Amino acid sequence: MMKKIVYKLFLVVIFILRKIPKFLRRAFFRFIATCGYLFAKKTNRIIKTNLDFIFGNTLSDLEIKEIQKYSYFNMILWVQSLIENLDVTDEELRKTVQIENLHIIENLKKEGKPLIFISAHYGNIEMLSCYINRFVIPLHQVARESNFAEIDNFIIKARESSGSKIIFKSGALKKLVKAMMKNEVISLLIDQNINSKDGEEVIFLGKNAYQTASSSILARKFDAYIVPLAIFNQDDYKYKIKIYEPIIPIKTSNEDEDLKNISQLEANAISAIIKEDKKQWFWPHKRFKSHYREIYEKSSNN
User: What's the whole-number average pLDDT of the chain?
Assistant: First the structure.
C-alpha cells in the first residue's frame, strides 16, 4: 500500500516538473544537487578518497571540492534529462547535442560488422542514450533492477521511448547473445566495480580493478567491433558526443588470454576518456574496493 502511495506521489512530482518552465525545473534540480553536496558527507569522503588515490594526493582541496559539487550536479542531471527527454523534439535534441566521428560507426555498419558500444558513467549518459537511439542506431542496454518495480517500469518506458531496448542485469548475458545473433547493437557501461567471479582483472586508471567481462566475451564470440563512446557536458546544457576508434576483435586459440587482452583495451579506452575531463566521471562509486578496500575503510573512520 505504501509503495502505491509513494508511486502516485512520484507521478505527481514528475507531472509538475514536466509542466513548469524549464528555467524553474533546472533551478530546482540545481538546488537538489547543492543540498546533496552540503549534506552527503559520506559520499563526499568517497569522492575525495577516489581522487586522492588515483591522483596521488596531488589535487588541491579547491579542485576536489569543485569535483564533489560537479558530481552531484551530474547525478541530478541524469534525472533531469530523463524527465525532459519525455518531451524533447528531434529538432531540440539536434540543437542540444553535437556528435563527433560519426563516420566510424557508419563505416562499420556499411561493412556489416557486429557492434558493441562501451561507455562509462560519464557526462550526461541519459542524453547520450537518447541521441544515439534516436539518430544513430537503436541499442540494447543493460539496467540495474531496483526494489521498486513501478518506478523501474516508468524509467524503462521513458528510456525505451527513444528506441532502446532495456534489459535487466540479472540474466542479461543470454538476452545480449540473442541480440547479437540478430545483428543488433548492444551498449554497456563497464566502469563499475565487479567481483572476480564475474569479471576480468585489468589496470584501470593506473590501478588494479575487476571489470565486467560481458563485452569481451560477446566481442570474441561474434567477432564484434567494440566502439568506445562518451558524452561531454558543455556550457548551458549543451553536449558533445565523441566516438573513438574501435577495438578490433581478438580471437586466438587461447580464450582466457583473448578475454584479458580485450578487457584491458577497453579499460585503456575508458581511462583515457575519464582523463579528458576528470570531473565528469562518477567518482562517488567505490570503484576500487575489490583490491583496495582499506582506502574506503580508512576514509569512513576519518
Answer: 95
